[in-house]
Amino acid sequence: MFGWLRRAPASPTEQQREVWQALSEYPPYAPPEWDPDTKSMHDACAEYQEYFFDSKPLRLEALRTFLAKFDTTLDFDDAGIMTVSIWMHGYADLLVHDLNDHATIDAYHGFAPRWTGPLAGLNPIFDLGIYHAECLWFRRTKLEWIVGRGPQKNVSAHLISGLPGTGKLFNPISRAYGHCSNICLAKRQVRKRFPGAEAALELQRDTLHRLILSQTPPGRRSRRT
After folding, report:
1. Alpha-carbon gap, residue 1 to 206, rounded angstroms
2. CA-CA distance, 171 to 158, in Å (whole number)?
3. pLDDT at residue 201, as a whole number
4. 8 Å CB contact between 31 and 111
5. Digit-coded pLDDT (tens) for 161-192
6. Distance of alpha carbon 125 from alpha carbon 180, whole angstroms
7. Cα 164 to Cα 140, 141, 206, distances in angstroms
8. Tens-digit pLDDT profile for residues 140-156
9. Residue 223 — pLDDT band, cuts 50, 70, 90?
10. Among candidates 91, 89, 93, 98, which has minimal Cα distance to 18?
11. What is the residue-wise DSSP string for 171-196?
C-alpha cells in the first residue's frame, strides 16, 4: 500500500559515473593522526607542516592526472585558470554527495574520517585549494604559508599572508570547499526552479578565475614557503 510514495533513487548520470570512476583512483590526503593526549600541539604542527609541504607536489600531480580524465589541463596561466574554473562549474557538485552536511565539513577540516569512499571527493577539493595557492605564487611576491593544527585535533589552518591590498590572511583550502559548496547549492536551486537561480549559477562559471586575478595584480615575483 502507498508503494507509489517510495521513490527509488535516481539512476546516476553519465557525468556522475565518470566522476566516481576517476575518484576511485585518486590518492587520499592522509596526514599523521594527532592525539592531543600523547602529542603536544607544537609537535603536531611541526609534523603536519612537514607532511603538507612534502605532499604539495604530489597533490598537484594527482589533481593534474584527475582533471586530464575530463580533458582539462592543469596550468597556472590565465587560460589555465579559466579552464579549471569552467570544470568546477560543471563537476564540483558531483565530487561529494552533500557539501553542506556538517559531518562532511568537519571531515574536511579535521581529516577524520579518512577521505575515502563517499568522502573521496574531498581529495580533489583540497588539491584545488593548493592549486589556487600556486596560481597566486605564480603571479605575486613575498607570500608566505602559515600552516598548522590545533588547538583541537579537528582544527587545521592553511593560510597565506602577504596578498596585496588587504592585509588579511587568506585560506585557499577553505575557499576551494566554499566554492564547490556554492556551486552545489546553486545547482540545487536551479533544479527547484528558484527565481534567478540559473543566472546565479552562471556567475559561478568563472569565479575562480576572477578571484585569483583580483588577488594578484602584477608585481615582482619572490617566493617563500
Report:
1. 49
2. 6
3. 65
4. yes
5. 988 876 789 999 999 999 999 888 888 877 77
6. 8
7. 8, 9, 22
8. 768 899 999 988 888 89
9. very low
10. 91
11. -HHHHHHHHHHHHHHHHHHHHTT-TT
